[in-house]
Fold this sequence. Notes:
The structure is a homodimer.
Chain A: E1 2-8, E2 22-27, E3 30-36, H1 40-46, E4 54-58, H2 70-79, E5 86-90, H3 94-104, E6 113-117, E7 123-126, E8 130-137, E9 143-150, E10 156-157, H4 159-164, H5 172-176, E11 181-182, E12 188-189, E13 195-196, E14 203-207, H6 216-219, E15 225-229, H7 237-242, H8 248-258, E16 263-266, H9 276-282, E17 289-291, E18 297-299
Parallel strand pairs in A: 3-4, 4-5, 5-6, 14-15, 15-16, 16-17
Antiparallel strand pairs in A: 1-2, 1-18, 2-3, 7-8, 8-9, 9-14, 10-13, 11-12
Helix pairs in contact in A: 8-9
Amino acid sequence: MVGLTILGNNSALPAHERHPTAQALHWDEQIYLIDCGEGTQTQLSRYKIRRSKINHIFISHLHGDHYFGLIGLITSMGLMGREASLHLYSPPGLEDIINLQLKIADTRLPFPLHFHPLQANAALLSDKHVTVHCFPVMHRIPCWGFLFVEKKAPRSLLKEAAIAAGIPQVFFGRLKWGEDYQHKDGRLVRNDTVTTAAAPPLSYAYCADTLYMPSLAQVVAGVSLLYHEATFLHDEAERAQSRFHSTAVQAAQLAQVAQPQRLLLGHFSSKYEVLDEFLKEARPIFPSTDLALEGVTYLLKPLRRPSIVPIAKG
Amino acid sequence: MVGLTILGNNSALPAHERHPTAQALHWDEQIYLIDCGEGTQTQLSRYKIRRSKINHIFISHLHGDHYFGLIGLITSMGLMGREASLHLYSPPGLEDIINLQLKIADTRLPFPLHFHPLQANAALLSDKHVTVHCFPVMHRIPCWGFLFVEKKAPRSLLKEAAIAAGIPQVFFGRLKWGEDYQHKDGRLVRNDTVTTAAAPPLSYAYCADTLYMPSLAQVVAGVSLLYHEATFLHDEAERAQSRFHSTAVQAAQLAQVAQPQRLLLGHFSSKYEVLDEFLKEARPIFPSTDLALEGVTYLLKPLRRPSIVPIAKG
């Protein structure tokens, strides 16, 4: 299963039973944690998300509503006897904060912590599931978005077509990775006549606290799921700008250009108890918009493509 | 109203819907916050306790389950526009932690923070309601208990008796503070014949994470309400000792000597989902024992004394 579970969708002040920002991105058996506001460890328990599956935590910026829950999660992992390394990606400064608190508590963690300070547009991680990049967004202090892209899948072999084209079975593996086949007599079998493209890679873009940045559309173009903050409604556009936040309309405008499969809005200001209005403002601009609701898992789904008819035999 | 609201009663790992340690001590319009585990600000909201009434926060020690919620509470107070000073009493180190986090977030609070590092048996505070002292307990790192004692109340005037004894009305105020009255002819009117003692002062003792220390009984003798940690049951007494914690039996044994009006047990290990056993072990030793349950307010009540019959007139 590839999907995103929202653990917190509120901005700085917790209110209306909503929590500060945290998201768990499931990628098969691996879970990537994105931001970690106060109470994240409790939210993980509530939604039965196993901490032991989290090996990488991405912190967008060092405002408290995005990381005050981290030290508690880390110490709890220690109390539970974790031994596996934990990787933390964040703007510089986090290492000092965490280490100072561990030192004063005289706590020695039973597992290694690796701090990875974020730098311009760096590739942060490449494991068997995904590659993860960060990209700068515009906030009051250094702040980053994250882009998760599925590792490229092999193409699907049209076995009957390949046999009909006289390609030896030993070459089939190379066909899956896109190679053409040349017969000894020089005849060329083009790869796209004997394979179909794999589904385009799944991808998730997280645009944390940021001013509306139209240029982000290029960075997040065509992702399967786009999360964009929408702290305010349109009538508070000035306030949003002065606080380096965005509105629902702006998030939808970005999506209108970037054309993700689906847009999720979050980081709602505590002034809004009811959230319907965010959808009312965003959907006319980008219909495939939803609210990021706590406890809900939003699946990343492969794009449906027109089915490809295998070429005729012989 | 003078009473203690429990905001968190669990030990380090949050579990079973229980939260790490935090308590709100109401003293008329003032609220003293004692410890501040992760999620305390949310618990304050849940139980409708107004943050603006909190001017003094007492942190027993710098293990995370007793203070990780503090930075979130402080920044939220700032976001809500607080202007009043906030006083923080804790072992040394807290100031560095809080200031580092504020600095990295580029946060300037709109109110003054005053840090008061704890020292041996010091008087921390004397306001119109209470005096507060700290006293050392024994834990893995420096750790303190807190004793809140009501300011001495004036004696109650037996007005008819005072008039009958010929004491001029202008002296009545001094009678309330315990003075005898001497007539010009040398006759003495003893204070206790024209006043009755005020109720003994209300008092609350908080014995945070600690080994069983029989010597504490002297410090907390006769308090109206005694909170003592009871992380484990009796069959885990060795484990309790090795971790510098106490058992329910030990807390009750302390109360048996100190004779508070009431004993509250808390800081339960996450290994216990059901807590009845704590009472079963403690009450045979000290019957007036209760569990510190989240959301419950335990009143501090004046001792009932035998009613005093005013002396006969004339």
